[in-house]
Amino acid sequence: MSSPEIASLSWGQMKVKGCSTTYKDCKVWPGGSRTWDWRETGTNHSPGVQPADLEEVVHKGVKTLVIGRGMSEALQVPSSTVDYLKKNGIDVLVLQTEKAVKEYNALAAQGAKVGGVFHSTC
């Protein structure tokens, strides 16, 4: 299964190719996508993305995970979260969301087993 292309991104809205849902924040992985609901893990801008936010995508067998920190990079990514990914043998890219989407789409187009979590506002 291939990682789906992120078809569009604007403030507060993301579309994934082949999916009719418009997301605010989303998770993507080879063969799927869904809403990233911060309430599930109690995530806030600070301390930011926790391993619990990424477990679902990690368990899909990704080799690279791209984290979009928001348009103004307000979403934090603690070193403990990066360490969690590295301990699982996963390369991680932490970028401003527009750059993160471009990088994710480039990797997906190359056939990489890439996943991502993306914050589409601040």
TrEMBL record:
One GO cellular component from the entry? cytoplasm
- Kindly give the Gene3D superfamilies that the UniProt entry links to this protein: MTH938-like
Q: What is its main location?
A: cytoplasm
- Give start-end of the signal peptide: none
Record's InterPro entries?
AAMDC, MTH938-like_sf, NDUFAF3/AAMDC
Q: Name one GO biological process term.
A: transcription by RNA polymerase II
Compartments where located: Cytoplasm
- What family does the database annotate? Belongs to the AAMDC family.
Q: Which PANTHER family match?
A: MTH938 DOMAIN-CONTAINING PROTEIN (PTHR15811)
This chain's protein is named Mth938 domain-containing protein
The protein's organism comes out as: Sphenodon punctatus (Tuatara)
